[in-house]
Every structure is written in structure tokens, then in C-alpha cells.
Specification:
The chain is an all-alpha fold. It is 77% helix and 0% strand. α3 packs parallel to α7 and α4 packs antiparallel against α5. It is globular, with a radius of gyration of 15 Å.
């Protein structure tokens, strides 16, 4: 089985869009962000969708290469790390991103705006690193 390049590329396009929106929202200072529900909702949705793009791609890689099947979504990145695709620290950080995504989806009424702002200011490079990894993987497959 080979990687489904068109499917991955579609998700990469969306991932780039979500990252761009997150970067746009990064310009807000903390007080502006805390006062702007629309910006908060945009950040929540962009993070949720970006993380889902990453987990979709990661799950596809795991399936195509016959790696250990994850029991839940937060396991996909540690599985890729154990297979040597990236270091364990990065795998754990991406697993934490999945947990953050789960909080957005399932505990939406109880999100800490300060924590959301912190993620906005610090965690975008994790998404960008995954994008670079996938592009390199696709280039290596061709």
C-alpha cells in the first residue's frame, strides 16, 4: 500500500490555512484576545481543525506502513516517534496537542482563555514542524 498523496496534500493545504489563521490571531495582545469572543472561537476552531489534519495524516502513515495501531488519537504521534519518524519529545508534545483538541471539543464550556492564548503564542511551531515532516515524507516517497 502506498501513501494517498492527494488526500495528504488536501489536508496539508487546510493545515496551512489553519496555521495562517492562528498566526493572524497571534497579533492580538492578551487583553484584546480575552475581550474578543470571535477571536477566541476562531483560535479554538483553527487549532481543532489543524490538529485533526495532523492526526488524519499520522493515522494514514501508521496504516500504510503497518505500524502499531493506536487505541486512541493521542497515541498516533508517540507511535510515529517510536518508529523513528521524529523524537519522543516532539511525539509527546503532539500527543498533548491532541488532548488539547479533545478539551476544545468535549469541554468547550470550560476552556481557560489564558491557556488558549498561551497555546496560540507558543504551540504553532509544533503544527509547522509536522507540516515540514509530511512534506519531506512525500518528497522521499516520490
Amino acid at each position: 500500500m502506498k501513501l494517498n498523496v492527494p488526500s495528504i496534500e488536501t489536508r496539508l493545504i487546510k493545515l496551512r490555512q489553519y496555521i495562517a489563521e492562528l498566526k493572524n490571531q497571534q497579533a492580538l495582545d492578551r487583553s484584546e484576545f480575552e475581550a474578543n469572543l470571535t477571536a477566541q472561537l476562531a483560535v479554538e476552531r483553527a487549532f481543532q481543525a489543524a490538529i485533526e489534519c495532523c492526526t488524519d495524516i499520522a493515522n494514514h502513515i501508521i496504516s500504510v506502513y503497518g505500524l502499531t495501531r493506536p487505541e486512541d488519537q493521542k497515541e498516533v504521534f508517540p507511535i510515529l516517534a517510536r518508529a523513528g519518524y521524529f523524537d519522543g519529545e516532539y511525539g509527546a508534545a503532539m500527543s498533548a496537542m491532541v488532548q488539547f483538541r479533545n478539551r476544545i471539543v468535549h469541554l468547550y464550556w470550560d476552556l481557560d482563555v489564558e491557556r488558549l492564548y498561551h497555546y496560540l503564542q507558543t504551540d504553532i511551531p509544533l503544527l509547522e514542524r509536522f507540516e515540514v515532516f509530511v512534506v519531506q515524507l512525500l518528497e522521499a516517497e516520490q
